[in-house]
Amino acid sequence: MATLSTVAPITPLRQRMQHDMQLRGLGRHTQQDYVRHVRRFAAFLGRPPDAANVDDLRRFQLHQHDSGLGPATINGAVSALRFLFTVTLGRRDLARGLVVTRYRRKLPEVLSIEEAAQLLEAAPGIKYKAALGVAYGAGLRVSEVAHLKVDDIDSTRMLIRVEQGKGRKDRNAMLSPQLLELLRLWWREGKRRGVMFPHGWLFPGRSYTDPISSRQLHRAVQEAAEAAGIRKRVSPHTLRHSFATHLLEQDVDIRVIQVLLGHSKLDTTALYTKVSTRTIHAVAGPLDRLMALMEGKPSG
């Protein structure tokens, strides 16, 4: 008896959009996000997206706001639909009706150096300790940590090569002697377990043919934070934030930190000046100056 396929066929419009995304070099995750947003728009519309008009887009955006969706989700849909209407359908007149939602940027959660040490010490095993060590010691994003390969560790030049990071950009990250030693400990243990191979993943997943997942790294950070008694809301990205903030507190030039983090804009890196305790403490408060004047002391 023949079985019926439950997989929905790919429509010509979706295939055309996917080809357009491939031609323009959009990353795999971006392509998946765009397709998901367009699919949601089509479900709301009840007909193919290429039959939409300006009022349909307006109703959809109002529906998203009324549903309580966050700015990141709403703006992600704007990007996806702009691509669909501008690039794939050539309808710039429709794309102009899409409105980006503004949102307040929250200050990132940052660990103290002592808390970072406690978190790494409490990591569930040497593999996770090494992976989280890379996130903190080199300031890598969780996806960048997950997709490192053995060959990306350059112990001669003391660099970590990050290929196709955010924005599909390559860059070099720092490799300290302490981090290199930690990675060597994991390399020896991984060889003993039979999961480390030349030119393979630095942090293999459940199968050595696949990299560790971002979800596994998130879970490891949360387990480590709980074991270490850290009450802050932490994630692998917290380690990247802490890396940048601690470098800033060591008087490393902010432009150097920008390069190490792979930020396109200095404004993004400048956010860490708002959470650096040393930057805040270095400023003499007006009350201190006032009291010094009242007491006849030099205000400094």
From TrEMBL:
Ranges where the Core-binding (CB) domain occurs: 8-89
Alphabetical keyword list: DNA integration, DNA recombination, DNA-binding
Superkingdom of this protein's organism: Bacteria
Alphabetical list of Pfam families matching this protein: Phage_int_SAM_4 (PF13495), Phage_integrase (PF00589)
MF term (GO), any: DNA binding
BP-aspect Gene Ontology terms: DNA integration; DNA recombination
Domain Tyr recombinase, first and last residues per copy: 106-285
InterPro entries assigned: CB (IPR044068), DNA_brk_join_enz (IPR011010), Integrase-like_cat_sf (IPR013762), Integrase_catalytic (IPR002104), Integrase_recombinase_N (IPR010998), Integrase_SAM-like_N (IPR004107), Tyrosine_recombinase_XerCD (IPR050090)
Gene3D superfamilies (alphabetical): 1.10.150.130, Intergrase catalytic core (1.10.443.10)
Family stated for the protein in its record: Belongs to the 'phage' integrase family.
Descriptive protein name: Site-specific integrase
Phylogenetic lineage: Bacteria, Pseudomonadati, Pseudomonadota, Alphaproteobacteria, Sphingomonadales
